[in-house]
Amino acid sequence: MKQQFKILALFLGVILSKSLGGAYCEDSYYCTEYKLGVGAQWGVHNSKAIDDLNVLGSIFVDANIWNKWLYFALKSHFGLGKAWITNIEKQDSKKDAIYDDISVRFALGLPLNVVFSHAPSIAMSEPILLYLTLSVGINDYGYSANMPSQKRNAIGLGLAGSGIINDYWKLEYALEYGYIYNGTYKFSHQTLGTKESVRIGSNSHDLRLSLGLVQNTESGFYMRLSGIYRSLDVASDNSFFYPQSTQAIGMFELGASFGNLGL
Predict the structure, then answer these.
(1) Are 159 and 175 in contact (CB under 8 A)?
(2) Distance of CA 3 to CAs 8, 9, 74, 129, 179, Å?
(3) Phi and psi for 120 in degrees, rounded to 5?
(4) What digits encode the pLDDT tens for the residues 203-218?
(5) Which residue from 130, 232, 117 is spatially nearest to 183, judged by alpha carbons?
(6) Contacts for 202 with CB less than 8 Å, ≥ 6 apart
(7) How far, in Å, CA of 23 to CA of 97, rounded?
(8) 136 near 121, Cβ under 8 Å?
(9) What is the 3-state secondary structure (H, E, C) of 172-183?
(10) Handedness of CA 42, 81, 59, 147 (dihedral sign)
């Protein structure tokens, strides 16, 4: 356990010292960047059983580190807000619920254009990144109106990059696909009895797209728009059945960026 804490402390120390130290990425063996932002999130959950509209305030934390051969990142957001839920089967009116959305994604890959560039020190400041992702996601309604909470584990593939627009701004982009290999719905005891959760089928996927602007400086402001489309398979267990559902989520964030690249 102590060894794990030492590794985490070393990684955070590298990020902070490098990002706040003022060294330019082109002159370095490796580059680092992190972001801290706040924003708003809007989402819908649709199925033949229940519809949900939600609005949240969110905190976003990103950290990236890369060199010529390797890219590693931690991307996370934490949202808390309100949901308006309609039980279609019972034809109920909308009910309010406290709603939270938590997501943590790890990325590991290669800066493609740096690997194959004749001038890698220059390409380091505008990398094109191809990476694998491993993510954990939680949506929690607190058992309100029999709306199921979710837990998801996904593995996927991403492509991201950054390009200079002018002396002041960079454009950043990212596209990620995730296969949800382990997902569960969690219901109230009144819905499932003594059993609290039921597994979501294997035909479950999500797609994520983001576009942003970052000040072309060592530290500055950034803004980013993100969208997520998620398709969840049916969940069934003996006599219980919850139909296939879809989620669409939009996010806007604004905050501070330190370093040379933000994704």
Answers:
(1) yes
(2) 9, 10, 20, 30, 32
(3) -60, -30
(4) 999 999 999 999 877 7
(5) 232
(6) 181, 233
(7) 47
(8) no
(9) EEEEEEEEEEEE
(10) negative
